[in-house]
Amino acid sequence: MRYSLEIRKFIYSQYFFGGLRIALGVSLPAVLMLTVFHNRDLGFTIATGALGACVVDMPGPLKHKHNEMLACSVIGFFAALATGIASAHPVTLWLTVVPLTFVLSLIVVYGNRWPQISFATLFMMIVTLEDQFTPMQALVNASWILLGGLWYTYWATLISRWQVYRIEQQALAESIFSCGEYLMARARFYDPDADLDECYRKLIETQIAAVERQDAARDIVLRNLPKLQSGKLDPRRAKLFNLFINVVDLHEFFVGAHTDYPLVRSAFSGSDLLIFYRDLCMKAATDLEEIGLAVLQNEPARARISVKAELRAIEYELELMRKHGLPEKNPEAYAAVAAVFRRLWSATRLIDRMRRHTRTGDDTTETEVRIDHALSRFVSSRRVSYMQIFSNLTMASPSFRHALRVTIAVGVGFWLGRLLPLTNAYWIVMTTVIILKPGYSLTKQRNTQRIIGTAIGCAATVALILIVKEPHLLMIVMFASMVMSYSLLLFNYTASVVFTSSFVLLMFHLLAPGSLRLIGERAIDTVVGCAIAIAASHLFPYWEYRLMGKLVNDMIAATRNYLEASWWWNGKPAAAQAENAAAVKAQAGAAASARTQAPAETSHEAQHTKVLVQAALPAEAQTEAQAKALADAVFADSNARAAVATAGEVQAAKAVASVPSVPSVQPAQAAQTAKAPVQPSPASADTAVKSATAAAAKLSSVSVGESTAATTGSGASAAATVVATALDRDFRYRLARKNVHIAFANLGQAFQRMMLEPKAHQKFVAELNDLLIQSHVLASQITAAAPLLQSLPGAGGFTIEPVHRTLDTVRDNLTQAQGGAPPRENQQEQIRQLTRELDAMVVAAERASNVPSETVHDLKLLAHQCKQMLAASTLIRKDASLIHLPA
């Protein structure tokens, strides 16, 4: 581990930035009241409201964060007011605290930030338990708490609005770091000594983390884009948007680089090829770390790492294998390593492109993907139905059970606090509420971390107090502990508790010097609160497996939708193939035209970009045939966009958003026009671009398969209609890709939580583990096959009907898996038959004299990927039929 890099990542991260913001926002009112007005109690009361609101201050869109903190402050005001009024008599206090705890615990049903709001409002209620108030005093106390909450809400909003671009940078950098960690996990597969099961465990773990951080970055970056439809695009945000699109596509490259690792290890165990692949992945991951750090520091990324040696070494090894006839002797193994090389080579090009984006000047507004309202489909809605709480008033609801557990635990903790001779008895209740989570596994995990962190924090504080006698130095340590406590809260809870205990105990020591009794009480309160929480977690448990049935079905359904979006499935694959054949032929002509107009690539680049060169289609393609080819290219090159030479990148970006509108022409005229590139005048080109862009914007909401005749008849050109439909298909593909990753992450997280529960409540462990692995394998192969599925059908000289039949079978397996149907008795025979058909398809293409060798190579690769998909979908169907979980 490079500690200097990790320290810089932390210092520039959103975690440290957030910790500093929270520490200042919470401490400022307390310091002001203490130093200016000499009113310590008032300072603590206002700080209580600020502490409650800061719980909700987590990375996310500014608008939602403001509303959530505001709701937290208002609900906390009413909770503190009700508790304060009831504090005059023990009976009324009990009659108020118990139902209020239940209601505040039940609001977790609304999801998103409501669990944090639930805890924050419970915190405001708990700190009011210790004092007795008259109704007027209760109103004044609750008002000061509300003031503290409002102060922090607008403090955090002001700072976040001031640093909005910085916040986007931090979220994007976290996504880049997680992508690098995922690639590092991939690198372990090429280490022959690494255990495959452990490699898969780490891969799934990093995939979940990558999806989480990608989703967080998407939520922050994309939510600001609809405001930009007026026409003025902030160049800095355009740069971040491009980097976000790049990192999403890069993650797709890495996911698609999956292969049959047992086969590769056995076939190349004595070769240096595996070492080269491992080193290539590790170097690329390190390069991504440098780019992420450059984004964090708002600096251009420097090219410190070169992967040319590994790329050339792998290329040399593959060439030797070709000369020794490996493609004929072991076609499966050769296709596997060749496919990975292509993906990783393209990934390195995209990494280079990301580095260039960090160096882009502030006047660049070109974007990787056309920005329009369709992007709102990628952002999850945060609207909630306020009647939802009433539908959860049943024991079948996990949230209802959680509310019951918290209510009982708070009641027991409150009773013990009154019974024991403690200075701050509410610490017991506070510890209980902090630890108790809706799931047993999270409660158990937090319980252990809380005890360890408190013990270390108390011991460190005792040593510090005995050694350091200077109050000003202790105040500095206290503030630093506060910053670190909030900075580490989201990713290292144990360390966060250490610093929390330290700053709380130092604060009490500075207010009442010379007494170490509070430190002992803090430890006792923590132990008692942890014991109550772990005991309450066994009441009305809702074990994780009861929630996983729906998650399994959601993941299978998302995988099937991803297959359909990649394949443009419409129920008639053969018809779809015929429909696109002419367009793909025209696309080949347009691509050739683009190559003649762009500067020549280097020989090394050209060798590997022949299939991917469609991304460089020029904006001046003016026939309907060329426009249709472009529409196909927009989708087909979603993985290959980064592999285009620098000279073609600007053309590709413009081509996506701006195909000129032209009058319709006869097929013969279209074919004749397609033979030679058209050189329009700058003025006419600009007019055409504006016309097509406006028409495409109107049509961008057209769904796949929906008739566009009405829209076209209203004046929009056919070319713009095709481009708009292609954009919608591209968005549909990207949306399906996002959904399959999120569904996988949801199931993976639930599986991890289940494995922390008692063994008696761990159901179908082997089947669920294999289902996760095979689902990731299938999604990876779909990702890798998507560009080939769009580029090969119209190449001519061969048929890919066996591919369509195989994909039909894969889709059928996923559909049947959702219903829990076991594989058919003749499933293996069907697999063998489809395998023979795929092999025969490749052989026929090899024997055909009019099929280029590059196309044959792509066909071999597609056949290999189809076999992998077929095997994975069969295992998914088998696992799903054995898993019997509540729906």
List keywords for this structure.
Methane Monooxygenase Hydroxylase, Chain G, domain 1; 887 residues; mainly alpha; 35 helices
Question: Could you characterize what this model shows?
Answer:
- The structure is a single chain.
- The chain is elongated.
- It has helices spanning 3-11, 14-35, 40-54, 62-86, 90-106, 114-126, 135-162, 164-187, 196-223, 235-256, 261-267, 273-297, 308-323, 326-329, 331-358, 388-391, 398-419, 426-435, 440-467, 471-488, 493-511, 517-536, 545-567, 573-597, 603-608, 624-636, 646-657, 667-675, 682-699, 709-713, 718-754, 765-791, 801-818, 827-847, 853-882.
- The protein folds into 5 domains: 11-162, no CATH class; 164-368, Up-down Bundle (Methane Monooxygenase Hydroxylase, Chain G, domain 1); 415-541, no CATH class; 546-567 and 731-882, Up-down Bundle (Methane Monooxygenase Hydroxylase, Chain G, domain 1), CATH 1.20.58; 581-727, no CATH class.
- It has 887 residues and is an all-alpha fold.
- Mean pLDDT is 79; it is low at 570-716.
- It is built from 35 helices and no strands.
- It starts with a helix and ends in a 5-residue tail after the last helix.
- The longest helix is centred in the C-terminal third of the chain and has 37 residues, at 718-754.
- α26 packs antiparallel against α32.
- Helix content is 73%, strand content 0%.
Determine the number of helices (DSSP H or I, runs of at least 4 residues): 35
- Please name the CATH architecture of the largest domain: Up-down Bundle
Strand content: under 5%
Instruction: Provide the residue-averaged pLDDT.
Output: 79
What do we call the CATH topology of the largest domain? Methane Monooxygenase Hydroxylase, Chain G, domain 1
Helical content class: over 70%
Terminal Cα span: 44 Å
Summarize the biggest pleated sheet.
Answer: none
Structural class: mainly alpha
The number of distinct structural domains comes to 5
Q: What's the level 1 CATH class of the largest domain? A: Mainly Alpha
Tell me, what's the shape? Answer: elongated
Poorly predicted regions are: 570-716
